[in-house]
Design a protein that fits this description.
Blueprint: E1 17-22, H1 31-38, E2 44-49, H2 53-65, E3 72-73
Parallel strand pairs: 1-2, 2-3
Length: about 70
Amino acid sequence: PLGVKTASLQSPSPNPLTCAYVGQLYEGQGIPILLKAWQSLVGVKLKIIGGKPKEVQELKQKIFSLGLQDQILC
């Protein structure tokens, strides 16, 4: 239910803006929504911290399948 104006996330410097998510990765945390939103951002990186090893592995596969491996690190 929270909104953000993506135009305000554009990095003014040559270094990409880096955001972070710290928390659990279980279903219901909204990670699929976060990944979908990240597909529309340009010049913004994301570091995801947290989750159990199996959840992290599944997330890495999803990130790769969406082509976001250059934008999202977990």
